[in-house]
Amino acid sequence: MHWSRVFKRARDQKPVPLDVYASLVDALYDVRPSLLIGSIASAIAALITAWKADEPALYAFAVAIALVAWFRNRDMLAYARVRSSLKARSEYRRWEHRYVIGAAVYVALLSSWTFASFGTGDAFIILFSFSVTLAYLIGVSGRNFASDLLVTSQIICAAIPLSAALFLAGDYYFVIFGLVLLPFFAALRLISNRLRKVLLDAVLASREVSELARRFNTALNNMPQGLCMVDADRRLVVANQHVPDLIGIDPEQMPSGRPFGEILVESLVPRLRTDADAEAFVARLEQLLRTGGVTYCELADGRALAFTARPMSDGGSVVVLEDITERRNTEARINHLAHFDPLTGLPNRNRLREELDRALATMRRSGPLALLFVDLDEFKQVNDTLGHPSGDQLLGLVSERLQSVIRRSDVAARFGGDEFVVIQNPMSQPEEAGHLAQRIIETLSAPFQVGNHQVFISACVGITLAPRDGSSADRLLKNADMALYHAKTSGRASWRFFEPAMDAEAQSRRTLEQDLRKALDGGEFELFFQPIINLRNRRVTTCEALIRWRHPERGLVSPSDFIPIAEEMGLIVEIGTWVVEQACRTCASWPSPISVAVNLSPVQFRRDDIHGVVSQALARSGLDANRLEIEITESVLLQDLVESQATLEKLTALGVRISLDDFGTGYSGLTYLQSFPIHKVKIDRSFITDLQPASRSLVLLHGVAELCSALGIVVVVEGIETEEQMATVLSETSIDEAQGYLISTPLPPAQIATLIGLTSGRIGWGPLGKAVNQ
Ligand code: C2E
Ligand code: MG
Ligand code: MG
After folding, report:
1. What is the residue-wise DSSP string for 383-409?
2. Confidence (pLDDT) at 696
3. Measured by CB atoms within 10 angstroms of the end CB, which terminus of the chain is less buried, N or C?
4. Chain segment 611-666, per-residue pLDDT in tens
5. What's the per-residue H, E or C state across 189-210?
């Protein structure tokens, strides 16, 4: 058997780990006292036999045994000296060999001494030497089982001389003795092998267990959480080193066996945020240890801990403690972002909904409340003129002022853009809501300092009351919005309470919007035409196309009732295109040079390619461009001067003429007349209504007419209803053309065609609303 297999594990034939091997070698060298005593005893025994037999060979054995013992003792001392410097397996192996050689020589000497004793023939000497050697051999398996090589070599070194001695003794009984002795040697080896296996297995198993425990311990102490185990009586069994840190207690204060709840209460309760928290925490903790689950606690220093307990089958539980301060702060930040407007720091629309729902849910107890919808006036201008950063700054300042006029129990939120909502809660009298709206308007109307600019804005407020006007958040927000809409139509810096009629109005408007969407495809629009005549020759110069909506249920709807809605909906673009097409087609059937005038909405100027629409309509109808007049209002010119001017110039380039409608109702900037390509000015009907000789209106009418004729612009007066008005216009002014019920009301295409045909374009005037044939 090769020596290197000696320390292999019997089970899996892997070499034993170095540290185990080293301790086995240590065990060999660790028996110096017993080796000394045994060797001295053996040397004395040999000496006694030598003395009794007076045999020099036996003296030599006594000396040799003592010498070998002396060498082995030296070796043992040498091993003790170098032991700490031994590292490699090969070094230990060398020392093992030295021991094996020493022991083999020693045993060989002992058994050779016994062999020599047989030569004396003295029964005492034979028995004495044989017993001493055998006694030594019996101890071999107990002392040297750690090394198979050692045991085997000693057995061989002992067996050969002893067996030889017995076989050579010449007596058959000795031969039988020798034969009986052989199984003894085999058993000796088996016993030591078995002992070694048992020992190695035990050593390796305990080594594995302690390694596992060490790794487990490392893992437990290196996990970021605190971990502890409690038994079925809720007493602490074990805890990792984070637990005392997390709960802020001296590790000494948490010995195993102490009730776990008691440890937590002692360490955490004094550090919780409030007494109420403490009470709730203790209750939750008991529940947690009973049934498992998760609970949290907030400490006064801002930290937050989470406890997760999981019950085990033996009735105990595992509790994980975690510092969730970071996670909680992150969640709080995300939550803040989701619920608050980053610009103003006010609750956002989502949060407003929650606040409103909460307030409505407790309204029975806390009493009525008011919802105020605030919309800034002129905010867009600030954004457009000073830029968005200034706009943002202004919104911040607005929110500060809003907060300064509300109470702690009220809520101000940013609804979006320049819209804010205030929940006035509680509100005992509706007047209180009115007062708050007034205060909001006043505070927002005071000048703001934005950068280097003083900015003036104001606000409109719509108010709705709960439960009077509704008790759901949706309803109230809608009501407040409707009230705001009405407030805005009454002008800047105004506020309105919601009224049920507004709802009805909004409802009917919604229906109107739906109907309007269908009207164009349904062919429900018609064009009426109203003639405009030249006051000098009474000939019809132009007919103004005026749209009518023949609604299936409402009958004929006036344009002033639906054009503004169509403008808001953007539908005016499609309607306007239809009007231009239709007007051109109709005009093409009239005798030349009678023209058609088409009203264009400012919205069309913003959104549509007017030039394209007009040229297409002209092309399709074959109408001469100079028989088409486009009526615009001053607001078109105000929108974007450069853009409008370019569009108008493109239209004029086509040959189309431009009329300035409703002149005198807007800014009436006379400079337009000079800077824009305007061919006609239509003076608004309002000038005619109080047209008395020597009135202010007449002076203005006269003045505008003079100015326009000087600029080569044709002047039309609108809304002539009476003979008197006509007479005054004719006698007091130099106005070129006139339009009005006195001449003719707007007429359907067939009638206007008849009128033009019958009169050959020359119309007189008779009683109100009737065209008179001349
Ligand atoms: P507008 O362009 O100033 O048209 C003149 C309005 O005055 C017409 O009202 C006409 O019927 C009315 N009118 C004419 N003579 C008299 C009179 O002697 N006495 C009174 N009391 N009224 C008179 P209508 O047709 O109801 O149109 C109202 C407004 O609707 C128009 O004012 C125009 O701004 C707009 N509109 C009409 N058709 C269209 C259209 O096709 N497109 C656009 N964008 N607007 C249109
Ligand atoms: Mg008009
Ligand atoms: Mg007009």
Report:
1. HHHH-HHHHHHHHHHHHHHHHHHS-TT
2. 81
3. N
4. 999 999 999 999 999 999 999 998 887 777 678 888 999 999 999 999 999 988 77
5. HHHHHHHHHHHHHHHHHHHHHH
CA distances from residue 587 to 152, 714, 747 in whole angstroms, order as listed = 133, 21, 14
pLDDT tens-place string over residues 20-30? 888 888 888 88
571, 599, 661, best to mutate for ligand 1 pocket (most atoms within 8 Å of CB): 599
Measured in Å, residue 743 CA sits from the centre of ligand 1 at 15
Proximal ligand: closest to the CA of 662: 3
Bridge partners of 462, per DSSP, are 373, 496
The pair of structure tokens assigned to 334 is 């995300």
**The residue type at 351:** R
Half-sphere exposure of 101 (CA within 13 A, CB side): 8
Q: Averaged over 681-688, what is the pLDDT?
A: 90
Q: Answer yes or no: is the C-beta of 541 below 6 A from any ligand 1 atom.
A: no
* Closest residue by CA, ligand 1 atom 46: 599
Paired residues of 461 in beta bridges: 374, 495
Among 146-155, 545-554, 612-621, where is mean pLDDT lowest? 146-155
> What 3-state DSSP class applies to 567?
helix
Vertex 223: Cα angle to 220 and 224 (nearest 5):
140
Distance 545 CA to ligand 3 centre (A): 11
Q: Is the peptide bond before 426 cis (omega within 30 degrees of 0)?
A: yes
Which chain residues have CB less than 5 Å from ligand 3, an ion?
661-662, 718
Confidence check: pLDDT of 769 > 50:
no
Ligand 1 close to Cβ of residue 311 (< 6 A): no
- Encode pLDDT of 321-348 as tens digits: 999 999 888 988 888 889 999 999 999 9
Q: Which of 53, 65, 32 is nearest to 132 (CA)?
A: 65
Give the model's pLDDT for residue 280: 84
- Select from 546, 569, 629 the residue to mutate for testing ligand 1; criterion: most ligand atoms less than 8 Å from CB: 546
pTM exceeds cut of 0.90: no
DSSP element (H, E) containing 539: none
Q: Can you point out the beta strands (E) in 240-368?
A: 293-298, 304-311, 317-323
**Residue, of 224 and 62, whose pLDDT is higher:** 62
Task: Tell me the two tokens of residue 649.
Answer: 């110039």
10 Å CB burial of residue 397 (0-12, 13-18, 19+) is middle
